[in-house]
Design brief:
The chain is α/β, with parallel strands linked by helices and about 325 residues long. It contains 13 helices and ten strands. An eight-stranded mixed beta sheet has the order 3-4-2-5-1-6-7-10, with helices on both faces. A two-stranded antiparallel sheet has the order 8-9. β3 and β4 form a beta hairpin. The protein is globular and about 65 Å long. About 40% of the residues are buried.
């Protein structure tokens, strides 16, 4: 099982759309078993992939399971959730399983942030609290891939997720602030990894038992970036990115190399293409996909596809296929 966080602390980069369609492609076209965990308190993934009946059941019927229920036992009893209480839903339109999001998850920020102070003091309680997603992943280890959708922040919830995952992918929009955010991502993840790993390595044998057999070493790697939502124009029969976006995108490779490849992976010797994909603006296909709760590459006439839309659906599938292939190639190179 490989765990992948879709993360950028800059919002508005289209991470939910690309995550859900990438996960859907792995299920529908590559026959992989995939779980998506909606850990963004805005719940955009849950809104996107759950059909109307499932959505109403989760959010309007009392006692329904969400990602917030993963954290509650730790907050109230100091223990991790029992495996049999993890209730996983299925998205028929995308093909993967999903743990529904919850706006209440945001209330755990202060709890996890407070316990992070105990990590710096070498206290076992703080380590256990911030390893909550380590525990969740090992209880869901029958999947080929587990993806986390995350909010655009460097807060305590995202810190715990990133420390638990094998890899992260950074979606990038074609704006200057996406580039400026890279330094924050690099410095934060590097600092968190160092503090957790140093503290765990110094635990006594008695405290090690309190980790319940988990291998707590954080070894997250930057898997690659996807830039998207750029605009093209046709010149002499060839599509080109418009100049304003071209100037911004020109800076990307250098900044990615400086902050994420050197800053986190610490190895530039491997011949890896970290640009795992680029997605232009598909305009009406995205809201069409959202309203039908289906992957973009699965849209049909019943969902409103007409005329030139069919060509765009095929184009989107080709792009997601290449992203999936590049992601798998980079995983093999980085393991």
């Amino acid at each position: 099982m490989k765990s992948i966080a879709m993360f950028n602390n800059k919002g508005g980069v289209g991470k939910t759309t690309v995550l859900c369609n990438l996960a859907g492609y792995l299920c529908q076209k590559m026959d992989k078993k995939v779980l998506v965990i909606d850990a963004d308190p805005q719940c955009n993934t849950s809104t996107y992939v759950l059909d109307a009946d499932s959505f109403l059941q989760v959010y309007y019927e009392p006692g329904q399971f969400t990602v917030n229920d993963i954290v509650l036992p730790l907050k109230t009893r100091g223990s991790y959730i029992e495996p049999e209480k993890i209730n996983i839903l299925h998205s028929t339109g995308f093909g993967f399983d999903v743990i529904a999001g919850s706006p209440k998850l945001a209330t755990s920020e202060d709890f996890l942030s407070g316990d992070w102070k105990d990590i710096k003091a070498g206290e076992i309680r703080g380590i256990r609290s911030n390893m909550i997603f380590f525990d969740l992943l090992r209880k869901c280890n029958t999947y080929d891939y587990i993806f986390f959708d995350m909010g655009p922040s460097l807060g305590a919830i995202n810190r715990s997720i990133l420390l638990a995952c094998n890899f992260f992918i950074t979606p990038m929009s074609s704006d200057l602030f996406s580039i400026l955010a890279l330094e924050n991502i690099s410095s934060s993840i590097s600092d968190w990894m160092r503090k957790l790993n140093d503290t765990v390595s110094e635990l006594s044998p008695e405290d090690q038992e309190g980790l319940e057999g988990m291998n707590a070493a954080c070894e997250i790697k930057f898997l690659g970036y996807i830039y998207q939502q750029y605009i093209t124009r046709t010149s002499d029969g060839n599509k080109r990115i418009v100049r304003a976006y071209e100037e911004i995108l020109r800076q990307l490779p250098e900044k990615i190399n400086q902050y994420l490849i050197e800053g986190i992976n610490h190895d530039c010797s491997k011949k890896i293409n970290y640009e795992i994909g680029s997605i232009p603006n598909f305009y009406s296909l995205i809201p069409m996909s959202q309203s039908s709760h289906k992957s973009v590459f699965s849209l049909t006439s019943a969902d409103g596809v007409v005329g030139a839309h069919y060509r765009k659906v095929r184009e989107y599938e080709d792009i997601i296929h290449q992203i999936a292939q590049n992601m798998c190639t980079n995983m093999e190179a980085l393991v």
